[in-house]
Design goal:
about 650 residues, mainly alpha
Amino acid sequence: MEFFNRFAIPHPNPAIYASMIAIGVTVIAIVAGLTYFKKWGYLWREWLTTVDHKRIGIMYLLSALLMLFRGGVDAILMRAQTAVPENTLLDAQHYNEIFTTHGLVMIIFMAMPFIYALMNFVVPLQIGARDVAFPRLNALSFWLFFMGAMLLNISFVIGGSPDAGWTSYFPLAGNELSKSVGTNYYMIALQIAGLGTLLSGINFVTTILKMRAPGITLFKMPIFTWSALTTNVIVIFAFPVLTVALLMGTMDRLFGTNFFTTTNGGMDMLWANLFWIWGHPEVYILVLPAFGVYSEIISTFARRNLYGYKSMVYSMLIISFLSFLVWTHHFFTMGQGALTNSIFSITTMAIAIPTGIKIFNWLFTLWRGKIVFTVPMLYSVGFIPIFTIGGVTGVMLGMSAADYQYHNTMFLVAHFHYTIIPGVVFAMIAGLTYWWPKMFCFLLNERIGKWAFWFIAISFNVTFFPMFFTGLNGQARRMYTYSESTGFGPLNLLSFIGAIGLASGFILLVYNIYYSVRYASRNINSDPWDARTLEWATHSPVPSYNFAITPEVHSIEAFWDAKKLGIPIFKGQYDKIHMPNNSGAPFIMGCILFVFGFSFVFSMWIPVIVSAIAIFVCMGLRSFEIDKGHYIPVETIKENENEYRGA
């Protein structure tokens, strides 16, 4: 009974019981399916133990898509609850948990893995590398993220979800006001996943700086690779701040320290500062890779080289620097004084300048281009006006005096979504569609994809544009209900209708994948888009070694020059290729860390100690392990290359 009380949900309701049943049925179905089709060995050999950056990228992708729909359900429930005045679909506690987990899932467990899915698959190919610098560390990074995501997602059926908002401000997140273990889940799940992200940041910076093919100088790298480099530099500097803040918050909740309390020397504003020192760079961790995706797609389908290559690079570097100098604009109204507000207001508006440079560069690339409106291009072109609205409203919020009216209203919610959805979600769908044939050797259906785009683009505006008006009229964010006399009802109902349309667009996206898996032609070449960068120079499917011969690059668009000018990029003879061995250690360590985190959430100290010892044992075994990898012989390479050419 004691364990039942410990793991019980503080406020059970039919939706949570239904979720428990659904999770149980899904787990049973997966286990039964793997057993019936005898796929356990295949799953272990090819996926759970893989260190291939391409397969790790696909696992990130699958995880991100799952989390997209997990967070999307929360969004629909929120819009349904506020669709009409005095609605009782959700109670206050359930609503608090839903908007908290919606923010966490979408930012940390959907957008971040989507970004790293594309980085993992594309970046080594764009720089002509065999793999990332540290393949086994790359696998560990994925499993740390995945276990952190699973730890957070079981919270709503075991113990209760976090309910203090995705920013988890203290003292609201302290033990007095958040009595359940939900905030423990928040603190520990984010630490585990954040550690994986930090390791990925170190890995990709090392890969890009040290493993580029001959001739690829920094200013001959594709813009997407540049965006990956700047993003991961931000990760290296920003994520340790989050890790320290989460550790301090965990100690406050579990060990009675007073870092963020309002008594005994604590300082609740310390949490706000530490969180946003990480949190605002995090916005650009999400957006900069999207800028790289759009640059690749717009250049490809405008049939022109990217206008202002160096200005694009320098603007990314300026953005990454300024992203650390704007965090205080998140609490203009919290009393730090006019001088501080003025300084951070100036830096906030200054960061719009390099972003504006990018917008003009994309427009000049489109100018006089021979534009082909494929699905990736539609998302890329549609992004520009929608994101501009987000940028302009961001400048409005950056004016500290005006922010006293905008702060903590639905105006802010609308601004944030006008930035993140076109700046991240549109980019990820565009990038997924663009690189899909390189990942899976067939194209997604264009007609269904265009229907999905129009549903998503139109419904997005119907959902979020009314929030600008309700926010200006005084509707506070995080309100789970409101009275009819406020007049918020009609516009909130319109937002709910838009949310249904947005969900329909994503359902079409899933249907497109299903339809294309079944019916799309597999008879496509390795470069179906007539693209410009090096990843399209190798075969589809991409062999484990990426390139049979290491490419030699002489220009920014080496593959385009090879096709149009006949400049060769593959010279020399085949030679044996060294590749890393698969390893089950990253997966096992991820599982142990899941047990460690779950035990920590519920203060079960014996499992905590045992799992901590097991983690150090795994690290020790790895330190003494001698693993020299393996060589792919020349005969195998020749056989593979001949088979690919024949196909």
